[in-house]
């Protein structure tokens, strides 16, 4: 059973390393979007590592398999919900007008929105003339 | 500036006073008086492994009834304060596709988890109030993701009232059988589940009462959310 424990410990170590990277990204990155990118991705991966690792560690130390089941359920829940919350946060940040980093090159989303708006105003104009 | 510094000084004095009062209380020493009784007798008297829920529902069931009443009054008060003849959701922007799909997918899982919490109140941490709050969170998620979503009002309000009534009813059955209000008749009189303490079908009437409380709290908090998210519509 010691293989399981060692594997779990390694996974927890990897997970905490990714937690550290995500906190570092939060300080290091220039704007909201880059910060969200680094922090959500590595924090999700880090949580997965820590949770699966804790489950394996507990099983390896002679506790029941229900530890592993529960931790995997929590990990799956985080895996499904974290990207959705990150998506909602970033979208809300963009909609409330937070600017991109000045080094950014393209903003395809703004171009798309402007094109859509233009098409809509033209359509309404034509409708008014008729 | 003067106001702020005066407030800080007052708070510091109050904090020092409280710390002085607490400094005489030793930590890490056994100071339990009633606690010993609870810990030693909780299993044979109530059948629950979770001592907290046994105390909250069995030994001090009256307080829980009061808490449920407080929540009910809060929900009724919010409804009475925000009452208008015609009110609707005024949110204009639907959540993105990712958000709506995610909320739809997650909703049954969150409701299931809430039900798990309140059904297992006598075995694991939690109970009726956390479970009900989790279920209300699921409905809040739907409210946040969709602009047109509304809870089925008629059913929800009826279920809420029925749950509250059945809690009192369980207590009254105890009064009829055992002689006092909220008497645990399933455990004390029927001895039902005495040989499987620690499994699902044990714990006297704690699971039943917590299911009732969970349903009540879930519907109540959803109702409060519904009331607060609506705005008046003028025609």
TrEMBL record, chain A:
Record-level Gene Ontology MF annotations: sodium:proton antiporter activity
Pfam families reported for this sequence: PhaG_MnhG_YufB
Highest taxon listed in the record's lineage: Archaea
InterPro entries tied to this protein: PhaG_MnhG_YufB
UniProt KW keywords: Membrane, Transmembrane, Transmembrane helix
Coiled-coil positions: none
Residue ranges crossing the lipid bilayer per the database entry: 6-27, 39-59, 71-90
Official protein name in the record: Membrane bound hydrogenase, MbxC subunit
Source taxonomy: Archaea, Methanobacteriati, Methanobacteriota, Thermococci, Thermococcales
């Amino acid at each position: 059973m010691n293989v399981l424990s060692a594997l779990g410990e390694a996974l927890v170590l990897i997970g905490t390393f990714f937690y550290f990277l995500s906190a570092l990204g939060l300080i290091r990155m220039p704007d909201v979007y880059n910060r969200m990118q680094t922090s959500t991705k590595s924090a999700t991966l880090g949580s997965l590592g820590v949770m699966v690792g804790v489950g394996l560690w507990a099983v390896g130390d002679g506790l029941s398999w229900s530890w592993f089941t529960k931790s995997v359920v929590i990990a799956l829940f985080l895996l499904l919900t974290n990207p959705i919350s990150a998506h909602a946060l970033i979208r809300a940040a963009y909609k409330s007008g937070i600017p991109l980093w000045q080094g950014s090159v393209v903003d395809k989303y703004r171009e798309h929105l402007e094109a859509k708006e233009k098409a809509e105003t033209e359509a309404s104009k034509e409708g008014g003339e008729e | 500036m003067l106001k702020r510094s005066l407030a800080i000084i007052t708070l510091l004095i109050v904090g020092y006073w409280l710390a002085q009062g607490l400094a005489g209380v030793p930590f890490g020493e056994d100071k339990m008086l009633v606690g010993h009784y609870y810990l030693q007798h909780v299993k044979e008297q109530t059948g629950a492994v979770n001592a907290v829920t046994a105390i909250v529902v069995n030994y001090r069931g009256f307080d829980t009834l009061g808490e449920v009443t407080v929540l009910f009054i809060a929900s009724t008060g919010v409804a009475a304060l925000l009452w208008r003849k015609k009110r609707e959701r005024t949110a204009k922007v639907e959540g993105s596709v990712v958000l709506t799909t995610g909320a739809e997918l997650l909703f049954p899982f969150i409701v299931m988890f809430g039900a798990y919490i309140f059904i297992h109140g006598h075995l694991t941490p939690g109970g009726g109030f956390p479970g009900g709050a989790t279920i209300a969170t699921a409905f809040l998620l739907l409210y946040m993701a969709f602009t047109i979503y509304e809870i089925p009002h008629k059913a929800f309000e009826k279920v809420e009232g029925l749950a509250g009534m059945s809690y009192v009813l369980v207590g009254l059955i105890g009064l009829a059988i055992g002689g006092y209000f909220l008497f645990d008749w399933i455990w004390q009189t029927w001895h039902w589940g005495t040989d499987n303490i620690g499994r699902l079908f044990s714990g006297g009437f704690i699971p039943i009462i917590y299911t009732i409380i969970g349903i009540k709290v879930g519907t109540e908090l959803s109702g409060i959310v519904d009331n607060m998210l609506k705005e008046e519509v003028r025609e």
